[in-house]
Design brief:
4 domains, Molybdenum Cofactor Biosythetic Enzyme, Chain A, 6-stranded mixed beta sheet, single chain, 392 residues, Molybdopterin biosynthesis moea protein, domain 2, alpha/beta, magnesium, 28 strands, molybdenum, MoaB/Mog-like_dom_sf, 7 helices, Molybdopterin biosynthesis moeA protein, domain 3, EC 2.10.1.1, molybdopterin molybdotransferase activity
């Protein structure tokens, strides 16, 4: 059994971005990672551009200027100014080549077709140079950049409509257990409705992962082996719930050993989710989680989601953590690290009732988890604690 921090380090070391790309429209690429450098096809701005509404000047030593023309944003004509002349100009409009400064309209006095400057102006003032943001053929965004709304706007402003991004991983979700039946089916004595697959599908889709297949497997060794072997062969990441403990009908561990999957760790000193398995076969990453739903979701957020982000090219991703003042007392039993469902509000965090790994009701009300490390025994009201922000 290894500590939480060691499990996180092993995943960071072992999980690398997929060396596959896909072409996406810029608009549809938000949240994905650039697979290669993007070069600017034009200068941005593509011409000398006015930074404000005012007057473009051909500077001279006097404060009087004759206004000879007007240039609006989008105008394509190029008035020629002589020394001491000006043109009315607007934000974003092209600055004539013969103008060498722009003065804001609030700093002049207008008299007929003349203006009088009320302050001095320097050469180049209020003019955005051609290529100020990026010059043609230079790198606009580097490989590994995450596409945000701002990046979408920036790339679109360069006229770029398609980019190559890291392909998101294909994911196989395998749920084990004879006791499970699908919601909507008759519920006979001794059976329970299967919720892990729907929960994980919802989480994955909400985080932008859509290439997901789900299979339910009975507690049968031959069936477990067959389904796992095929899933590991077909997917970049396989996520298994249940069957990883050491009960008489827990066949996942034996099947992974026989396939074989290289075990990188098994069992983490944590609650919930102690019997967590992580391993690899070639380039496929395999997580086997306990079957209890709250343990499944805790392990998904702490370990699986960061691994998915790394596979998708975001190698620097870390699940967000902050410090917040606790509104609750809590005494820990045993020496395991704990992830406690909690509600974060107005900079304070409340540890919720009902922390059992089998219970989802509390998780449904939570927007965060309080992390208590192995060496800590209790939390006191008013104490600063580490809070993990759940991505969805």
């Amino acid at each position: 059994m290894i500590p939480v921090i060691e499990a996180v380090k092993i995943i960071d070391k072992q999980v690398a971005p997929l060396e596959e790309s896909e072409q996406k429209s810029v608009l549809d690429s938000r949240g994905q990672i650039l697979f290669e450098d993007v070069f600017a096809p034009i200068n941005m701005p593509p011409f000398r551009q006015s930074a404000m509404d005012g007057y473009a000047l051909s500077l001279h030593d006097d404060t009087f200027y004759k206004v000879i023309d007007e240039v609006q944003a989008g105008d394509g004509h190029h008035p020629i100014l002589k020394t001491g002349e000006a043109v009315r100009i607007f934000t974003g409009a092209p600055v004539p080549d013969t103008a060498n400064a722009v003065i804001m309209q609030e700093k002049v006095t207008v008299a007929n077709n003349k203006i009088i400057l009320r302050q001095t102006v320097s050469t180049g003032e209020n003019i955005r140079p051609m290529g100020e943001q990026v010059k043609k053929d230079n790198i606009a965004l580097t490989k590994g950049t995450k596409i945000t709304a701002a990046a979408v706007g920036y790339l679109t402003s360069l006229g770029i409509t398609k980019i190559n991004v890291y392909k998101k991983p294909s994911i196989g979700v395998i749920v084990t257990g004879n006791e499970l039946v699908a919601a909507g089916s008759p519920l006979t004595y001794g059976r329970i409705f299967e919720s892990n697959s729907e929960m994980l599908l919802s989480a994955l889709r909400g985080l932008g992962y859509t290439d997901v297949t789900v299979q339910l497997v009975r507690d049968d060794y031959a069936e477990t082996f067959s389904v796992l072997e095929k899933a590991i062969d077909q997917h970049d990441l396989v996520l298994i719930t249940g069957g990883i403990s050491v009960g008489d009908y827990d066949y996942v561990g034996k099947a992974l050993q026989e396939i074989p999957v290289e075990q990188l760790f098994y069992k983490v000193n944590q609650k919930p989710g102690k019997p967590l398995f992580f391993g690899k076969k070639k380039n496929t990453n395999v997580f086997a989680l306990p079957g209890n739903p709250a343990a499944v979701l805790s392990c998904f957020y702490i370990y699986v989601y960061p691994a998915l982000q790394r596979l998708s090219g975001d190698i620097g991703y870390k699940i967000p953590r902050i410090k917040a003042k606790s509104k609750s007392d809590f005494t820990k039993k045993g020496n395991r690290a704990q992830f406690l469902k909690a509600e974060l509000k107005d900079g304070e965090v409340t540890i919720l009732e009902g922390q059992s790994s089998a219970m989802l009701q509390t998780f449904a009300l939570a927007n965060a988890m309080v992390y208590i490390p192995e060496e800590k025994d209790e939390v006191l009201i008013g104490e600063l604690v580490e809070v993990i922000l759940m991505p969805i």
